Amino acid sequence: MKDASEPSNIVSLSQRLDPSSERGGALLNNVRDVAGRRLQILINGMFEHVDDALFDLAEKAENNAAQMHYFDGMREVRKRRPIVERSFLAQVSRDLSDFSSNYRNNSGTTSSSPLPIGSVELSLVADNELEESLAITSMIGKNESRLTRDLFAVNQRLSVIYGGIQIDDASNPVGPSALSQAFRQAMRELNAEMRVKLIIYKLFDRYVLASLDELYQEINAELIKAGVLPQLRHEVARGGASRAGSGATAAAAAAAGGDQAEGAFLSEDEGVASSELLQTLRTLFSARRSGLESAHLPAGAIQMPSANELIGALSVLQSQAAISQQMPLRASDAIELAGEVQHLKEHLLAQIGSLRGERPSQVSTIDEDTIDLVGMLFEFILEDRNLPTEMQVLLARLQIPYLKAAILDRKLFAHRQHPARRLLDNLADAAKGWSAESDRDHRLHDKVKSIVDRLLQDFDDDLTIFERLCTELQEFQDISRRRAELAEQRVAESTRGREKLEQARRRAAREILSRIGDHALPPLIHGILTRAWANYLVLTILRQGEESSEFRDAVRFTNDFIDSTKPARTLDERRALRQMLPGIERALRRGLANVAFQESDIDRLLAQLHTYYRHQLGEPVPEAEVHAAEESTTLPIPESIQPIVESEAELARSEAEAEPALDTPEMLLVSELKPGTWLEFMTGPETIERAKLSWISPMSGRYLFVNRRGLKVADHAPQELAAALAAGTARVLDSTALFDRALDAIVGRLSLPATATATDTE
Q: Which of 491, 510, 561, 691 has the most beta carbons within 10 angstroms of its beta carbon?
């Protein structure tokens, strides 16, 4: 049994070793040996693949010039490879040896991460340098996230053997950031085009950084064997760590995570496009700071607020916002909120000053970037024409909870599926279709307001509230959607029925008018054909179809009925007319009975026809009766049986309306609209209605629009809709998620000259 007075070989986190001591030096040498050996193998393996990769690209090059660039790059790599390898390994060894003294000389006693790659002033960075910086920053963030567990353990154990200096991912001499910087420095020995260098960086990511887990495991094993934190558990303070912990734990986690890197909120990689966008934001923020911020605070200046203080001050401001949220909304709220959004940083510093007794003049770079980014997000919300004003005001009140969430979890802006991001995207999507007319029962407005209220009142540091509210909103939306879908189906079926009727009416009119042609028919015959018989044709088309025998018989009757008006002067003509009359009477009785004629009306109509035909056959008929039968305009036809169409000109106008207009930008936009797209319509001088494209008629091509309850709002022919878009009385709403649109807008804004965005930091 070991004597109690015997010194222990176990080194705890609270203990520190002097790196210049014998034991500290020995441990540091061990780490350096492990790193040198492993990295030598990895860098050799990487360069073994460079030749093949460049040769493949040369074979696939789009032209001879590009092919020569790759071949030149191959020759340069073969010639300079030994120098690049030696430079890289030597830099890593120096970083391990010199870290302690350099760190203290540069930072005093305060831990401060070196600037990540890509944070230099934009105006001093050539396009190639920026491209290189963005590529490297992306792979650093991806690998720091992937290697969280092993890298955290290395950080803690190196902190012990470096004399207690706090080490994080960005400052670790063998972390992805330091190794990437060392490799970038070594690559300056290579005189190659940027396209060649970018290929080599990708291979460095694939064959060196991707294998760092083996290096970290070996370093951890060596240090555990030497007694350095053998019982260390994985307690890395990352975003989301607060979910299971108390407020103090969460804030401490945020503090540790917040100090890790200037651009920690961009540390996750969710695909090339998302990563490049976020890294661009990161660099643009850095460029803006370099042009706007003053010199560093002098020694003895007020200490910057910690993440704990930020969370505490935000909680106070959040409570105040929760109280104001209970007050009725006013027309001026949007303007007031815009001012609050822009000046939240000032309010936050003032609140910290109130809590600690002295007001800090600035916050850390990572926190400033986060505050500015969240502020610009909510400025975008207040300017977003996709959202109705009432909804802009509601959602803008979430700035403080979202700033607190972004400080607690730096991954909020990097993960599309982050619960807080999904909640805001879903709220904006629901709000997009809101209008006072479609929400008379206030169901949607009250649901959005309820979620905003609960975030303001209940969100402390437990980020799972976003997931819970997201699920709740989704359930509400699902129920609303099911109700709306039933209403939409009814509206679509009704519209489809009307269109079938209209199509049948046009077909019937075309059949009758084309047969009447230039015939000067008596009013009696013309009225029967264009009203009574035309309606029977429509009914036959709808019930039996245009290919049916019933429809062919009805069209044949039209020909016979018109022929029956021809003068019967000869014996043969009169005989032929007499033979036709029984068939005409039978067809009329059957047809008119099908279109809701009463028997008495049919008898009266046939009586008028009998008088007309007796006169045609030359039989004696009183002149008054003949005149009444030929000129009658008061036929015994029910008022419900209206003419299908009066003339060929009217039919031509009706069919012309269904023809597509000439190609215009608006017509092209209309042709690209898909069901589910939301539009905004100005239905009056001060009335705006939002409607979703529900259905495009396959028959007429008309566009049916419904509100969020599935009720019909508008029904437009393509050319009518194009005209409304051109006149500005209709506008297509963007279907892109709110966060994505906001980030794109922020990049555009930050890309403007510094003077244009100077007010952001005032």
A: 691
> Cα–Cα distance between 297 and 328 in angstroms, integer?
44
Give the H or E element holding residue 587: helix 571-594
* Contact between 563 and 543 (Cβ < 8 Å): no
DSSP 299: T
311-368: pLDDT as tens digits: 888 888 888 777 766 555 554 556 666 777 777 888 888 888 877 777 777 788 788 8
Q: Which two tokens stand for residue 207?
A: 């064959």
Closest CA relative to residue 183, chosen from 81, 278, 98:
81
Is residue 118 a contact partner of residue 134, using CB atoms and an 8 Å limit?
yes
Euclidean distance between CA atoms 413 and 740, whole angstroms: 10
CA dihedral 71→74→76→78, nearest 10 degrees, is: -150
- Token pair of 516, please? 């009447």
- Per the DSSP assignment, residues forming a β-bridge with 244 are none
Q: What type of residue sits at position 668?
A: L
The model's pLDDT over 567-623, given as tens digits with 9 standing for 90+, comes to 888 889 889 989 989 999 999 989 888 887 888 888 888 888 888 888 888 887 776
Nearest to 372 by CA among 281, 491, 481, 461: 281
Cβ atoms of residues 381 and 738 within 8 Å: yes
- 507 burial (CB, 10 Å; 0-12 / 13-18 / 19+) is middle
For residue 204, what pLDDT is reported? 94
Q: What is the pLDDT of residues 502-534, one digit of tens each?
A: 888 888 888 888 888 888 888 888 888 888 888
Question: Which residue stretches of 660-708 are H helix?
Answer: 665-672
H/E stretch holding 682? strand 678-684
Gap between the Cα atoms of 208 and 190, Å rounded = 18
List 358's β-bridge partners, or say none: none
d(CA 122, CA 115): 14
Q: Are 397 and 459 in contact (CB under 8 A)?
A: no
681 pairs with which residues across the strands?
689, 730
The span from the first CA to the last CA of the chain, in angstroms, equals: 67
Q: Where are the alpha helices (DSSP H) in 60-126?
A: 64-107
> Could you tell me if 253 and 238 are in contact, meaning their C-beta atoms sit under 8 angstroms apart?
yes
- In this structure, what DSSP letter does residue 712 have? E
Distances (CA, A) of 550 to 47, 497, 510, 541, 645: 83, 21, 17, 9, 22
| One-letter amino acid of 441 | D
8 Å CB contact between 394 and 450: no
Residues of the chain short of pLDDT 70, as ranges, are 1-20, 100-127, 130, 233-279, 282, 288-302, 324-337, 623-662, 753-762
Q: If you search the block for the tokens 């649901």, which residue do you land on?
A: 447
Percent of the chain with pLDDT over 70: 76
User: What is the model's pTM?
Assistant: 0.56
Going by C-alpha positions, the residue among 208, 206, 200 that lies closest to residue 178 is 208
Alpha-carbon distance of 589 to 597, in angstroms, equals: 9
Per DSSP (E only), the strands in 232-337 are none
For residues 708 and 427, give the distance between their C-alpha atoms in angstroms, rounded to a whole number.
14
Q: What is the spatial order of strands in the sheet that 703-706 belongs to? A: 712-716, 703-706, 687-696, 678-684, 730-732
Query: How many other CB atoms are found less than 10 A from the CB of residue 496?
Result: 16
> Alpha helix locations (H) across 528-570?
534-544, 549-563
**Which residues on neighbouring strands pair with residue 705, listed in sequence order?**
693, 714
Which residues, including other chains, have CB under 8 Å from residue 626's CB and lie 6 or more apart?
Answer: 611, 612, 615
What is the sign, positive or negative, of the torsion defined by CA atoms of 201, 202, 204, 209?
positive
Supply the Cα-derived Rg of the chain in whole angstroms. 40
